[in-house]
Every structure is written in C-alpha cells, then in structure tokens.
From TrEMBL:
Keywords: DNA-binding, Repressor, Transcription, Transcription regulation
The keyword Protein transport is assigned to this record: no
DNA-binding region (UniProt annotation): 33-52
InterPro entries: DNA-bd_HTH_TetR-type_CS (IPR023772), Homeodomain-like_sf (IPR009057), HTH-type_TetR-like_transc_reg (IPR050109), HTH_TetR (IPR001647), Tet_transcr_reg_TetR-rel_C_sf (IPR036271), Tscrpt_reg_MAATS_C (IPR013572)
Matches recorded under PROSITE patterns: HTH_TETR_1, HTH_TETR_2
Protein's UniProt name: TetR family transcriptional regulator
Residue ranges annotated for the HTH tetR-type domain, each copy included: 10-70
One GO term of the biological process aspect: negative regulation of DNA-templated transcription
Top-level division of the source organism's lineage: Bacteria
One Gene Ontology MF term: DNA-binding transcription factor activity
Organism: Pseudomonas poae
Keyword Transport: no
Amino acid sequence: MVRRTKEEAQETRSQILDAAEHAFYERGVARTTLADIASLAGVTRGAIYWHFSNKSDLLQALLDTLHEPLDDLARASESEDELDPLGCMRKLLIRLYHQVALDPKTRRINEILFHKCEFTDEMCDMRRQRQTHTLECNLRIGLTLRNAVHRGQLPENLDTVRGAVCIHAYIHGLIGQWLLVPDSFQLHQDAERWVDAGLDMLRLSPSLRN
C-alpha cells in the first residue's frame, strides 16, 4: 500500500510538471497561475503545494529534468582521470544542440527559460537560482578546460576562467538566438561546426591568454 501511495504521488507530480510545461509554454510564466496548472493537470492547488513550494520551485523542477541525460558526460569531462576532456565536452555540446533542436520537450523547456520567463518579484527565488546555476556552470566548464590544458588539448597559457565565461556565453547565445528565430540557421545539422567554432575560440584567441 505504501509503495502504491508513493507511485501515485510520483504520478501526480509528473502530471503537474507536464501541465506546467505546457501552460508556461503557451502563456508564459508570468501569466500562468498555479490555479491554471492545477486545472490543466486535473488536480487541486493543494496537490501542487504538496509537491512544490511555489511557481519558482515548479519551474526549477522542470529545468532539472534537462540536466539528467548529459550528467554522465559532463562528469567525465570534469574528471582528472579523463584522457580526452575536450572530446567529452565536444560530444556533450553536440548532443545538447541536437536535443534542443529535435526533442520537443527539451525545446519547449528551453524556450520557456530563454523567452517566456520574467524575473518578477514573484520569481525572485528563480533569479537567485539562475545566478547560482550560472556561476556553477562557469566553474564546471573551467574545470574541464584546466583538464584539457593538462592533457595538452588547449594552450598552456589559456585563461581558463575567462575561457569558461566566453564558451558559456557562446553556447547560451547560440541556443537563445536559434529558439527565437529557428529559420535563421541550422542548429542540429551544423551542430559539429558550431561546437568546433567555439572550441577554436579557446584554442586560437590571443585575448584568452594569460
């Protein structure tokens, strides 16, 4: 009976997340209420509060679902024992571009984050979470770059802190621009070339040297 109750709770949570994803995508985060999500999910507002503290918490749970498929590859590129950290990063980014362009769920959630989420007072927790996430991403990328320098894949005098910020901004900007005007360029067909262009910046830019 306990197992069934846990399974039912998980099913309800999944229903809420699915409803939130579609509501945020159609109406934007600011114009979507928890009552809207409850109605779409076929649950009460109380059921939403059982699983999520507020709308910011709900949106963060949606974003967390995007990280799972790529975590293993990300951890490998950050490991000092990885012999090909830059190759791992390359595979990670190519897969990321493919997922954004070809997987409807990944595309919708990214579009919500990039273009349908306003950091209003109601979403101040989300803003803080995004700030923390951005800084953590820069640190993780920097670790991969240092491993790549150690393996001789990047220049010894690469400024890995500045390089991490640059490659992160490049990835973020490329995805954001494609989501806004997807017909302006090919993201998944040219994924390898887009990734290699970013890695070339790390290898060749004099401005990224210490």
